[in-house]
Design goal:
Helix content is about 45%, strand content about 15%. Helix 8 packs antiparallel against helix 9, helix 11 crosses helix 13 and helix 14 packs antiparallel against helix 15.
Amino acid sequence: MINEELRTIGDACWERFDFGRDWNRHLHGSQVIPINDHLAYIASKGVVGNVTVLNTGKGLVVFDSGSRNTAAAIHKAIRAWSDQPIRHVVYTHGHLDHAFGTPLFDQEAQQAGEPKPEVIGQANIRRRFERYQNSAGWNARINGRQFKVAGFHWPEEYRYPDRFYEEQMILECGDCQVELNHGMGETDDHTWSWIAQDRTVITGDFIIWAAPNAGNPQKVQRFAHQWAQALRAMAAKKPEVLVPGHGPAVFGADRVATLLDDTATFLETIHDQTLEGMNQGLPLADIVQQVTLPEGLLDRPYLHPTYDDPEFLIRNVWRLYGGWYDGNPAHLKPAHPDTLSGALAELCGGAQALTQAAARHLDQGDLRLAGHLSEMAVRAEPDNQEAHRVRAAVNQERAKAETSLMARGIFTDAANASLKALGDDGDPGYPGRRVGIG
């Protein structure tokens, strides 16, 4: 189970990285990857968060616990590495793929007559879990759509931390000391951990080997500026090892510094240019067109926009400072989309005219405009088969053209809706047990 080869493969990812081709295909279940003789991390096949394990000499500190579906494999991997009792579990944040394997650790302790591990998390995790309970149906739908998961079920039970902290906490265990730090980024409940004796930073999803997930169009507010601040704070520690929330660990002070600086620069650039445009009074649509990133930044192996999309980050910065009004007065109290689509269809000669226009723009490669027109055609005449055929084709092409998983999931869902209206089941997606990042 302890795999030195994976460490070598992870090092090679610095030059080129594709989650499926260059990392995920080498994983089989959950595997231990050594950092040193008392510190290791466990990577799991799929889009499940890493788990880090520290042997303190007086028991284990485990950072994250995986998902419900990977908990057993992660527990087995830990036990292949050490038989020491698990004394503490630190949640990096409360997402499903990071904080939902803990009940198995509790069960092991009870069976051994040991006290259950003390679970530690940032104070906002309590509010996260309460929100999850209140919005379970919504979360099931949006995650099913985002990850193309058939029959996704949102959990109803949560293992709350035993101890909460606000901004910083020092965890003493055996001869080891771990510094826990609160940061805002993908979530408002994030913890990054610093193990000074090992010069190691455990980032959680502040680093995921993809462009930062600070935009997600279907989920709650993300925090680009505070995310960058957290990364700068990590860099100030001058770490020599970085264990990310997803993907391979990074070894070597120079590489770690470069990774942290590039990722912070990405976030700062989008945040600062968006805020500058807002201060100039520009509408959101203009800002989306004007924000530019430093040349080559998205080409870094660890910043490819394979999950989130820089355009979505711009919109999330706008939402943080400016709310949902985008600067277009017609959008303040808009007509219902069905009403607007019907009026435009009447003006241009019916839904068929909209459908034909959408098809022309699809052929010309203008997928954004084709998307608007095909959507209007279907809304104007919901039973129009040709409108559904064109809408399905437009959204299938949009999904193919996107690099981000989020956009592909939404466009595929739209295409499937029209295909089902035509009597076709569409893209079946993935089995219902698949889970992913937030």
